[in-house]
Amino acid sequence: MSQMKANDLKEVKAIPGNDKCCDCGMKHPQWASVSFGNVFCLECSGVHRSLGVHISFVRSIAMDSWTPQQLVLMKKGGNDTC
């Protein structure tokens, strides 16, 4: 596992809908659900965390470590897809 590389981050942010939180619409979300392949703001990340990791596995797109498989899931997802 390693932090998301700059090119991976750019690719995830470029996915349609990922310019805003999937739940409240806030711009520039910094959190993600690997389970759903979508991104959201800090406030909404707390809601997702409260669901439990068995439902929504939450990661920071800037600070947390990512496995190659998690990156694949994020690149296949996107807020407009979910």
Which descriptor suits the 3D outline?
globular
- Strands ordered across the widest β-sheet: 3-2-4
Cα end-to-end separation: 25 Å
User: Mean pLDDT across all residues, rounded?
Assistant: 95
Q: What Rg, in angstroms, do the CA atoms define?
A: 11 Å
Unreliable parts? none
Tell me the fraction of residues in β-strands, as a range.
15-25%
Please bin the fraction of helical residues. Answer: 25-40%
Total number of β-strand segments?
A: 5
Structural class: alpha+beta
Number of helices: 3
Largest sheet: 3 strands, antiparallel
* SSE pattern: EHEEHEEH
Characterization of this structure:
The protein has helices at residues 6-14, 42-51, 68-76, and strands at residues 2-3, 31-33, 38-40, 58-60, 65-66. With 82 residues, it is α+β, with helices and mostly antiparallel strands. Strands 3-2-4 form a three-stranded antiparallel beta sheet. A two-stranded antiparallel ribbon has the order 1-5. The longest helix has 10 residues, at 42-51. The protein is globular, with a radius of gyration of 11 Å. It starts with a strand and ends in a 6-residue tail after the last helix.
